[in-house]
């Protein structure tokens, strides 16, 4: 994934546990880079290794780390100069969720090797969505949950996320039930 993601993971660890802990996790993950370059693509393995090493060192479940990292990602992108991209994607939570694919397409204009996930939303009622996540990457189910919770914080609304399961047994397609109260 692009260095921007690894940089966010680094900041996430440093903000929560300090620079020394980051150095330990970085070494454990086998990361040789002095610093990540945001606009450079890195093998996905690096990101997964960072999560694995953080889980081992902090004694935390990797899925819990991914969920917290998803929440952090929203805050990170806003501070890292992408708040205009988020602003353009929608003024309300439902509008934003329906625009996620367009938003990543817009991002792909500068991140030309981006392999973005795709999402589909179906309105169930005024406060409920069926939300689909399709990806080439395994293991990020709870990351997406964290992202949705982070968006709830950004829109200052209360959001609930329930993971339903894979779609038609396909490990690359996942379904969630998202509730929100604005
Ligand atoms: C301005 C905000 C955002 C930026 C700049 C951004 C950018 C990126 C980048 C660079 C990647 C790595 C993919 C790659 O390198 O091939 C990525 C992955 C991802 N993004 Fe976004 N993104 C943003 C917001 C969001 C939001 C709001 C969601 C909400 C659901 C989201 C969902 C994901 C997921 C789930 C992945 C993991 C890749 C996968 O599942 O295949 N992103 N994004």
Describe this structure in a few short sentences:
By secondary structure, this protein is α+β, with helices and mostly antiparallel strands. It has seven helices and four strands, in the order H-H-H-H-H-H-E-E-H-E-E.
What does this structure look like?
With 182 residues, the protein is of the alpha+beta class. The protein has 2 domains: 3-60; 81-181, H-NOX domain (Alpha-Beta Complex). Helix content is 52%, strand content 20%. The protein has 7 helices and 4 strands, in the order ααααααββαββ. The chain has helices at residues 3-17, 19-28, 44-58, 62-88, 93-98, 100-107, 141-154; strands at 118-125, 128-134, 158-167, 170-181. Strands 1-2-4-3 form a 4-stranded antiparallel β-sheet. A hairpin with a 2-residue loop joins strand 3 (158-167) and strand 4 (170-181). Helix 2 (19-28) crosses helix 3 and helix 4 (62-88) packs across helix 7 (141-154). The longest helix has 27 residues, at 62-88. 28% of the residues are buried. Bound molecules: protoporphyrin IX containing FE. Residues 1-2, 4-5, 41, 77, 82, 85-86, 100, 104, 107, 111, 114-117, 135-137, 140, 143-144, 147, 151 line the site of protoporphyrin IX containing FE.
Please give the structural blueprint.
Elements: H1 3-17, H2 19-28, H3 44-58, H4 62-88, H5 93-98, H6 100-107, E1 118-125, E2 128-134, H7 141-154, E3 158-167, E4 170-181
Antiparallel strand pairs: 1-2, 2-4, 3-4
Helix pairs in contact: 1-2, 1-3, 1-4, 2-3, 4-7
This protein binds protoporphyrin IX containing FE.
Protoporphyrin IX containing FE binds next to helix 1, helix 4, helix 6 and helix 7.
